[in-house]
Every structure is written in structure tokens, then in C-alpha cells.
Amino acid sequence: MRRSLAGVALAVTSMVALSFLIPLAALVMSLVKEQSVTAAEQRAAALAPVLTLTTDPSALRESVAGLDAAERLVVHLPDAPALGTSQAPAALLERAQRGRESISQQIPAGWICLQPVVLPGDRVAVIENFVPEEELTRGVKESWAVMLFLAVGLIGGSVLVADRLGAKVVRSSKRLAQASRALGEGDLDTRVDPMGPRELRDAGVAFNAMAHRMTELLAVERELVADLSHRLRTPLTALHLASERMAGTPESARLEAAVGELEAELHAIITAARTPLAVGPMGQGMLGTEPGPVDRPTRRPVAGSVAGPTGPRCEAAEVVRRRTAFWAVLAEQQDRPCSLAITQEPTAVSLSDDDIAAVVDALIGNIFRHTAPGTPFGVHVVRTAHAVELVVEDAGAGIPEPDRALSRGSSTGSTGLGLDIAQRAAAATRGSMHIARSPLGGAQITVTFALASPSLSGRRSRISRRRAGWPRRR
After folding, report:
1. What phi-psi label fits residue 285: left (phi over 0), alpha (psi between -120 and 50 degrees) or beta?
2. Does domain 204-298 correspond to CATH entry 2.70.98.10?
3. How many whole angstroms separate alpha carbon 325 and alpha carbon 346?
4. Which residue from 345, 341, 317, 306 is spatially nearest to 452, judged by alpha carbons?
5. DSSP secondary structure letter of residue 347
């Protein structure tokens, strides 16, 4: 591109320079010639009054000597030899004398000017002024050289400017192409510094926005896979407890092995989903790359986090009662005392049944996975002035590092997604989650959901699974 732009600038500037240079050179030559001829005619005319007064050769020589270029002035007297060396052709001289005609024309050696002067007695004298060829072109070559130098400088400058402008465009285009190539090869951190013309700057800004959006989509995709996998923990826990009840039967060992293998595969899926992801040259996913900005995605709220007339809505107490009843059956199989205390007041929140159920399953499921059989737990739903509090507590070992546990994927000994699901559900209603020590001696997790606006209709609408990134419960 730089070569093309420089070539265009060279061609255009050359044509413009030539269109001015050629006429200007001819004009300069014409002006120099005209000035020389005019000066010769003026010298001849200046000597004419002297001839009308006297034809004395000595007086004429003195007058000629007082003029410029005296050696080129020749006076042809009618009855005396010429005063000076004549360069005029005989035919022109005779024509000027007989015809009494002023003659100024080109001859082979230069330019001749003949000025006839009528003397007393009807005689004719002729004043001759010869301008040699070098006088007619004096300074022309120097003027041409200056104009040529200026033309070359103008052309060179235009080519240089075009090359610099082209270099800026090419540099910006190359950086954009390199960044696109790097992004295609899996470098999700690549960005460009918008530069160059406005169109290329807009392209650079659009590229950065595209790359940023791509990293966000990849992060959301990994969160979705991890959340989907974590939701499978609930039926898997039920299968595990069912296999324990079958202990001693011929099928129990095989069922227990299958459940263990399924749990291991599920854990591997969650771990892989949380592993930094890169995109290979052909678009295939590659796990295990070095961490980048996309590895710690921006925490996204559950869909429907902004309540509106068409947003989701459910009775949190009813969903908690239903899910706790499911877990109570499993708790009975493990001899876990389970207490349930639910307020009788309305507990409408701006979440769907599935979202509240996912929170309950995540919190109670953690108790089953991280405490020994027989460990009691309790579930409470409390209505306050502006919120609904879901309290899940147990008599286990508790959570030694609550702040770390609230960071997605950083809990020790687990995938760390259960608490994150609960925290994001609370944040969707502009609520919060708090971890403390329970009266039972273990962990006490309080999830606060803001009450739904009374203006919302009672119609329950499901959160779009596409927007939320959470699966539908079946």
C-alpha cells in the first residue's frame, strides 16, 4: 500500500509540476529575449537625436561611448565608412536605408536592430545594434535549473508525505491484522491500540469490543457448564444414599461404584469448566492454559435480577418447604435430625421456583457432602420488613474461612460453586449472603432475598434459561 500511495503521489505531482514547469520555462526564455531586444532598441533610439545634430565621427564616437554596450553600436553614415564593426547583412542594411524602415529581427548569430535616421539633405543614416545569441539567453539556464530543483523538491516532498501517511495506515492495518490472527490462534488477551484514520480507529475499537465480548461469552459459558454440573449433585446425592441403603445386596457394590464414578466424572467436568479456556487455531477448546483476564469472569447476577411487571416471582417459603421435604427423606436415611421453621407471612421474591430450589439444594447438599451422617441441620425462613431470610445451619465443623468460601471456585475441598449460586441468587434481588457460626456449632448461612414489589402481578414466569445461564429443573 505504501508503494502504491507513493506511486500515485509521484505521478500526480509530476504531472502538475510539468504542466506548470514547461510553460513557465518558455515564458522565462521569452522574457529574457524580449528584455534584451528592448534594451537594444532603446540604445539605438537614444543615439538618433545625436545624428540629427551632427555627423562628426569623433562626436558620434563620444556619444556611443557613453551608452551601454557601446561596442555593439554601429553608425552607418551616408557618405562615410561605418563607425564600428557591422554584423548586419547587406540586404537588411540596404532595406533600412532605402525604405527608411526600422528593422528588428533574428539573424544566425543573434538579433539585429536597425534604426534609420533622416539627415538634412534627405540623406539617411542607419544606427545598428547587434545582440549576440548568448545575450538573448543570459540567465535562462540558471532559471530553468532553479525551477527544476523546486519541481524535484516538490515531487520528493509529496512522495515522502504520501509514504508517511501510507506508513501510518499500513502500520495500523498490520497491527489490526496481527491482533486478529492472534485472537484466532487463541490469545484472548490480545487488544489493539486504535490509531490511523478514523475508519481504522473505528475498526480497532470494534475489534476490542468484539474481543472483550468474546471473553465474556466464554466466561459465561464456563459458568453455565459448572452450574449445570453442580445442579446434578442433588440427584447424585440421592443415588448415593440409596446405594447405602442397599448395602449388603449383590447390586449394592456395583451401584456404589457407578455412583462414585459418576461423581468423579461430574467433579472433573466442573473442574474443567473452571479451568482457563483458550481457543485453538481451528476453534477447538483447549484446557489448562495459563490464566488470563477471562479466567476470573465478572460475577454475573441471575437473570431477572431487575424486577419488573413481567419478571419472575415466587413464594420462597413454599419452595423451601417442598425442597426441604425432599432432603428430609434422605436425612432420615442417614439419621440426620432435621428441623424446619417457616414463617406464615407472604414471602414473594423476584425469582423463579427453580432459582430458589437451586439455592436450597446447593446449601443443604453441601451439608450432606461435607458433614458426617447423623449431623443435625436446620432450615428456617424468616420474614422481615423488606426481605425474606433463608437460614441453613448445621452442627458440623463449620466454614473456617468465610470470605474465601464466598469467592467462586476457591473453597477448599469442593468445587465452591454452591455458595456462589446462592450468593448470585441473592444479588439478583439486591439481597446478600452471610456466613457465621450457628448455635448448633457448625456453619450458619443466611441468604437474604429482597421482597418483590407489591405492584407485580401474581403470575409466575420462569427465568429465561438462555439469559440466566441456569438449566431448567426437570
Report:
1. beta
2. no
3. 20
4. 306
5. -
